[in-house]
Amino acid sequence: MNTCIVGLQWGDEGKGKVVDLLSESADLVARYSGGANAGHTVLRDSREKAFALHLLPSGILRDDVLCVITNGVALDAETLLAEIDQLAARGIGLKDNLRISSRAHLVMDYHKRQDRYSEEALGADKIGTTVRGIGPCYADKVTRTTAVRLADLLDLEGLEKRLRPIVDQKNAIFAALYPGAEPIDADAILDQCRRWAERLGAMITDTTALLHRAWKDGRSMLFEGAQGTLLDLDHGTFPFVTSSNASACGFSAGSGLPARAVDRFLGVAKAYSTRVGAGPFPSEQDNHIGQYIRDKGHEYGTTTGRPRRCGWFDAVCVRYSIQIGAITEVALQHLDTLAGLDEIKVCTGYRRRGEIVDFFPAERQVLDEVECRYETLAGFSEDITQARRFEDLPANAQNYVRRLEEILETPVTMIGVGPSRDQMVYRTGA
Ligand code: GDP
Ligand code: IMO
Ligand code: MG
After folding, report:
1. Helix (H) or strand (E) segment spanning residue 350
2. Is 3-23+206-426 in CATH node 3.90.170.10?
3. Is 41 in the pocket of ligand 1 (CB under 6 A)?
4. What would the CATH number be for the domain defined by 105-203?
5. pLDDT tens digits along 198-229
6. Domains of the chain: which residue ranges?
7. pLDDT tens digits for 175-195?
8. Atom 23 in ligand 2: which residue has the minimum CA distance?
9. Are 247 and 327 in contact (CB under 8 A)?
10. Which helix (H) or strand (E) holds 29?
11. Measured from the CA of 50, which atom of ligand 1 is nearest?
């Protein structure tokens, strides 16, 4: 059984937790898009500190799982090495269980700087990126002649020849656009590349060939999406999106496997909505409800620590993500966070200029004008963090889940009732 996990909202839906759980029965876990802008939290046991993974697939916490970073990823080698070292310090050393695509693109120091300069220059109009250099790295990938791939680390002489003119070009652009920008030193970058090559060289391989072999051999594969469908470069709330295809549409291009290699596309959504960074968010509750959710759900970014914007579950968004991703099941996280609210609202449609809009309009201009139409359900006050079966949930919590299933026309097969591995309610026959 091969499964692809996809975020159905604006990221941080709890993908890391779901991947960690499903990786118990997987032979291989692959990250196929995004980069260190992702922050996937895994809490194995409530007594230990959570792991915050940015680039390593969430299967890395299990010894017998092969972890793969495929071609679609923008790889920040510095962050990856720091992550590898941090895990080793906690007793989880690599055991020949990580492979990285030679076709993945390297995030260079100048990409991170450019991300920062560009955001600073935009001021109030900024995207609110994670400043991890993701946009500039993917922009170089599209430009082609200025891109650096993992394969280049295996040919350092060739890389030196290519990198010097690239650095000259970046310096000229930075000097012209960003007064006060420090010049980039090509030698320092090349030293960094040599260090990366030494530590990562043996793991660099053709992961497309590897995945096709695994598929042919019937290995059980799990694909870990990053970000969420509404942050997808093509299908999300452009321009307030990330620079890769974060929806299920990114799976094939990002991994080299056809979509039919996946038996199920499992969508992950929170029982409410959150977003970090700027951009439209129709069901946002910039009030005491939003603050209640933020406090109770610890809604602060895993990568940047920024407070997340919070709001009601937006079924228009999630229905759209389900449609474009051919999602067959939903893992609904953070149901426990809603406990204590007298009533819970679900946005079931939008109204714009008096007209009903029921298909998600991803254009910013339209989204700025829509108003949510809400359905109000009774809340529940019980602590549900110890629930392990659907029947253990209070009637109003069960009703909320059932109503979401009806609106989404998709079964909810996993329900998160807390951050740790065991805090999950599984529903068979949903
Ligand atoms: P990801 O980016 O989709 O992997 O999600 P993040 O890790 O960035 O954010 C999800 C946060 O919610 C993390 O702090 C998780 O530990 C936590 N979490 C996941 N599922 C649940 C849940 O069901 N209940 C609660 N209370 N926390 C959860
Ligand atoms: P995970 O995988 C939430 C958001 C940023 C910003 C926009 C563009 O943990 O769900 P970027 O740095 O990618 O150019 O930023 O996308 N963003 C995320 N929001 N979760 C993420 O990843 C995100 N990755 C990027 O906040 O709004
Ligand atoms: Mg996250």
Report:
1. strand 343-352
2. yes
3. yes
4. 1.10.300.10
5. 999 999 999 999 999 999 999 999 999 999 99
6. 3-23+206-426, 105-203
7. 999 998 999 999 999 999 999
8. 227
9. no
10. strand 28-31
11. 16
